[in-house]
User: Fold this.
Amino acid sequence: MRMSDSKPLGALSGHPYYRVGYPWRDGTVDPGSGVASLVRPFEEKERFGEDVRENVAPWLRESHPDAVLSTYTGVRRLVPGRVDRLKGDTLFCDRPDERKRCLGRHAVAVTTDLKGKPVGEPKVIRDARIGNGSLRLPPPRAPEVVARPREGGPYRPEERQGARRRRCGVGPGPHTAQ
Assistant:
């Protein structure tokens, strides 16, 4: 199912929903390697990002007292096997630049609950961005796939390298009425 038409996407944008991406090659999808994420309406996503930053800031300031968090928060991937845990990154700078802004040179990888509270220990990723260029964050890790036979021959992990990722919506996400 391809969810790129504006009508289905518009219908989904009013409430949270799950999205799953699968690598595919030559028209064949490897279902054991999907990455699921939670897509939220804009205002809810912004509130969630603020909550994540508010909860990560005290932890970050313990080791980086002058650090300034960016407004970017990319915490949206579901932890494999869980629907109540999200993982991703929020960006920070060692200190703001001369214009008192922070695009985010470094990142904090974090796992949170659905309210934005960290679960487990966050991890600092240094030099996630060089200058004002694009981000160089580690790619999302798909769940480990056990070798298994399939139609057309045995599964080979090297086939996943260079594979494109196809995304599709898979239904409504959690209702987070407050």
